[in-house]
Amino acid sequence: MTAETDARIARLLHHRKAGLALGEPVVPPISVATTFHLPQAQGAAHYYGRSGQPTWDAVEAQLSILEAAEVVSFPSGMAAITAALVCCLKAGAKVMIPSDGYYVTRLLGRDLLQVYGVDVVQVPTLEMADHDFSGFQVIYIETPSNPGLDVVDIAGLAKKAHAAGALLITDNTTMTPLLQRPLDLGADLVVAADTKAPAGHSDALFGHVAGRDANLMARVREWRRQSGSVPGPFEAYLVHRGLETLEVRLSRMCTSAAVIAERLAAHPKVRGVRYPGLPGDASHKAVGAQMANGGFLIGFELAGETEAEGFLARCPLIEQATSFGGVHTAAERRARWGDAVADGFIRLSVGVEPVETLWAAIEGALAG
Predict the structure, then answer these.
(1) Cα–Cα distance between 267 and 254 in angstroms, integer?
(2) Residue 123: which of 108, 139, 112 has the closest Cα?
(3) % of the chain with per-residue pLDDT over 90
């Protein structure tokens, strides 16, 4: 972590201090109010729960510190993705999305955007930089891609997109703003599922959109108000709490992932290991450049479906779950969702368990 990142983390932890009165709680209260005292219509901080409320304010302040940008929170990562795309597109527009990215984003393109007249073009992550951007209104990227962990040059794509008159939207869920900063690299909007590492405890659905263009962010905020795609106050409170330990958890998770990836790569039953932190990985070029480190996600293959499912069932320290970024190490065989991966491909999200204990469990499960 850089000194600038350390300063952001410190500000995040104490962001409420300056506004606290004597005897007020350090932790933000959970405000469940939907209506507010309005003897007059002008000048109130809040007026109706669909437009804003105090617990959202607290978590958005944290996220704004991390992103160094305006933030609008949403009830899930997909709600944030939907808001960003809808606010930048209209009938007849053209958007590029990764064909190897998160599969629900592809479903959104097929079942919503195309239905309303948007031309959705799917391109593999590694081919995006060479694609012609002419006629596109939005280039939507996910780097590293989920689950393949391929990367693209954010700054390069931002420059190319802007030259073509397009906006660049970056899904930064796998990295978080502590490990990768797309807005600093030229992206127009960042979307993320804070359900993952930011909340960190697998108990809160949440997402956000961040950007530095005031007009664009005003459209995103108004979309939330009009669509009613609003987060709950309890979820906002949980994410606020999770963000306070994000840096500590990420440090452990990423350090452990680097150890485990190296050992998986040397294991005789494992093939095709993908981890950007490995020197020989195709995505390693991004580490130390646009990515702070290799992250906490690892992809690898076993011989087939039976071997992969058997390994997951045997390992006592792996939760078989379809999310990532939590304190519990979790994994799944991604082909079951229709991803274009081998039948034995496993996405592994490394948690905060002691690394040697975790590796012993993984090694034992691999041995069968």
Answers:
(1) 20
(2) 139
(3) 97
What total of structural domains would you count in the chain? Answer: 2
Answer yes or no: do 236 and 267 share one domain: no
Cα distance between the two ends of the chain: 38
Q: Say which CATH number the domain at 112 has.
A: 3.40.640.10
Per the DSSP assignment, residues forming a β-bridge with 321 are: none
- pTM, entire model: 0.97
In this structure, the answer to whether residues 100 and 116 fall within a common structural domain is yes
Query: Both 181 and 35 in a single domain?
Result: yes
Reported as a single tens digit per residue, the pLDDT across 153-181 is 999 999 999 999 999 999 999 999 999 99
Exposed / middle / buried, residue 162 (Cβ in 10 Å: 0-12, 13-18, 19+): middle
pLDDT at residue 320 above 80? Answer: yes
Same domain, 211 and 320: no
For position 308, which CATH number holds?
A: 3.90.1150.10
- CA–CA distance, 100 with 125 (Å, rounded to integer): 7
Chain CA centroid to CA 3, Å: 23
3-state secondary structure of 172: coil
Q: Residue 338: its pLDDT value, please?
A: 81
Alpha carbons 209 and 42: distance in angstroms, whole number: 27
Q: How many residues does the chain have?
A: 368
Residue 72 lies in domain: 3-243
Tell me: do 152 and 267 sit in the same domain: no
Determine which helix (DSSP H) or strand (DSSP E) holds 70, and give its type and residue range: strand 70-74
Q: What is the SS3 assignment for 187? A: coil
- The rounded distance, in Å, linking the Cα atoms of 171 and 164 is 20
307 and 192 in one domain? no
